[in-house]
Design brief:
By secondary structure, the protein is mainly alpha-helical. It contains 3 helices and no strands.
Length: 71
């Protein structure tokens, strides 16, 4: 009986550990992106590209996609 409870408890620990690794990876990605975007050279290039203009150009296509999906 104790062996069954140990096996069940082991699965929960593994799941918790996997979730912790996943969240740690996401945190590292966000931290890395923040470090890259805080560089003045990268900021200058992003300003030249015009990311805001790109998002505004893609908005009508996204709205059309949502309408087609709703059909």
């Amino acid at each position: 009986m104790s062996r069954e409870s140990m096996e069940h408890a082991g699965n929960g620990v593994s799941s918790d550990r996997d979730t912790l690794y996943m969240l740690g990876g996401v945190a590292l990605i966000v931290f890395g992106a923040g470090l890259i975007l805080s560089n003045p050279i990268v900021r200058r290039y992003m300003g030249q590209i015009g990311i805001g203009n790109l998002a505004q150009a893609a908005l009508p296509d996204f709205e059309r996609y949502l309408r087609l999906r709703a059909m």
